[in-house]
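Hi X.,

You mentioned you wanted examples for the new student's onboarding notes, showing what a folding record looks like when two proteins sit in one file. Here is a clean example. The first protein comes first, with its sequence line followed by its structure tokens.
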Amino acid sequence: MFHGEPPFKDREDAGRRLAERLSRYRDERPEVFALPRGGVPVGYEISRSLGVPLEVLVARKLGAPGQPEFGIGAVAPDGVRVLNEEVVRRLGIPDEYIERITERETAEVERRLRHFRGERPEPEVRGRTVILVDDGLATGVTARAAIKALRRRGPRRLVLAAPVCAAQTAELLAPEVDELVCLEAPPDLGAIGFWYGDFAQTPDEEVIELLERSRREQKERGRPEEPVEERQVTVPAGQVELEGNLSVPNGARGVVLFAHGSGSGRHSPRNRYVAGALREAGLATLLIDLLTPDEEEADLRTGHLRFDIGLLAQRLAGATDWLMENPDTRNVRIGYFGASTGAGAALVAAAERPEVVGAVVSRGGRPDLAGDALYRVKAPTLLIVGGDDVPVIRMNREALEKLRVEKGLEIVPGATHLFEEPGALEEVARLAASWFARYLNRTPGAGAG
């Protein structure tokens, strides 16, 4: 075990340091696969350094009866399963249990692959160099399954890379790959998190965002025109100035202003993922912090400002006026994307700017907080709610009755309030992009009623 500070600040730091060791593969244009979730921030830094796309390969541990964290094996795509036969015999685990858990976890592998990768085809790795990345190897059981799945695809060379590996695991896995790269290989690993200063859980939204970012970067490298930049802007709104991130693709058909929800901001992984999808659909985006840093600090203690719908709506109206004057966005229609309490504020602001705001989309929102302003909204409005978010479904249905415009309510089956379930956030992005593309193309004033 190390003494003093952990060797790695966080996964990004570990990925950058691991990328230095893998730099010799840059000319081979390898395919980089990361094991989600924790391996993805590490893999992203490697793929970016090597200038290649990032992909995911999902493997799932098979837990022992009554001890789900104790792995007796793992499954991976293409029907791959590895078992620790010695442990299975020693524990006397029956075949029917193994078959049952294999079926369940194999289905979960497929769901997660669809969630993270969408409908994109599997990359072709036959005859190529492949680098498989994780944030650490303890028992290595999921890595073994992933290695087996990749071997079936016929790569020319297979490299396994992790910032820290248990020495015994490294010794066992080394013969199964062409090269094993570990920056640290302690005989006494302990928990992988001990080797990181920050080992916070990587949410699904961050995985999706990093994969989308990697794809966008690859597209931009191949384009002759300048890549789409996301630049920081300062937006005056009444007596304050708000920090925001503005991105305007060439030929943007509209601009979507994000109204974040309770306790969130412009760095929300969920909103950033949706914003990326909107930009791919040809829409500009502006994500702003509706509260100043001092207000955010106060709100963390009291929680009252995030529910001050009048204040948030006023800030959105000010940002809308700024977009109307900004040279990059003054000639396109404006849409609002609101989440949680931000949806209520977006609808109030839309009622105050009826000639300017062309569409509103709410994700897991509280449109009921807009009150009587709902009757005055002129912009076509789509409400998106998770199928398992029962109280919010009721609130959205009641708000929908009060809207006197083109409107819709979409319920995403199996999704909860934050849309963290496989495929849920992708569906939100798809619905939002379709709604904005339909209504922000209209001329001002068209279609209301």
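Then the second protein repeats the pattern, sequence line and then tokens:
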Amino acid sequence: MLWIVEGTTSMQLVEFLAPHFHFVSDPTAWVALLTLVVLEIVLGIDNLIFISILTNKLPEAQRARARRLGISAALVMRLVLLATISIIVQLTTPVFTAFGHGFSWRDLILIAGGLFLVWKATKEIHHTVDPQDHQDTMVGTLQMSLAGAIFQILLLDLVFSIDSIITAVGMTDEIAIMYIAVIVAVSVMMLAATPLANFIARNPSIVMLALGFLLMIGMTLIADGMGYHVPKGYIYAAMGFSALVEGLNMLARNRRRQRSGDEH
């Protein structure tokens, strides 16, 4: 009897899921899935940099936990937003007009998130460069509570999640593809979070570069919300070029230290 119940349940599950996975036999759907996965991973870089920098301010014992909680919250938030996708799509409808631009709820959320990022990055840059406050740096002794870090991560998760879901809607109409892409992208973020955070913590010069990225991303969000769309390719090309230059600087510094050690 148990086998029959289990078999019936499995059949019901298959019948329920079948309409949502009819795309498996469509090659164009697989191309859309791969493209969306890559796009979601790239869009997640912004969120990952913020999480890595913010959690490095926590006591070392709490950092990994905060990253897991923050990224898990991002996954839950995006899945919930996908479940209410009809509402999310309506967020692009203008609710009022000012300065010749129709502002939607998405625009207002992007502007608020951009302002928060600009404020946060500017504050941390000040902590890093102020010679009278040199201990209060991202890699110094300033620490925040775990709850405070998670709260700030959740705020940016909301902004990046809405932008991510709206991007997904523009790529495909298949809700299953959107779910798979989001789950894969957030899983990659989970795997990359700790190595990225450790790399930033070991290289203080990277902190300033990452804060500059956050400042640029914040300004981009504000511009997007104001109706001035900046192609994401330009942003990531600038970030990639800056990272390449900093990588060459790090390589040069390491070579100089090696030569200095050999001479002594």
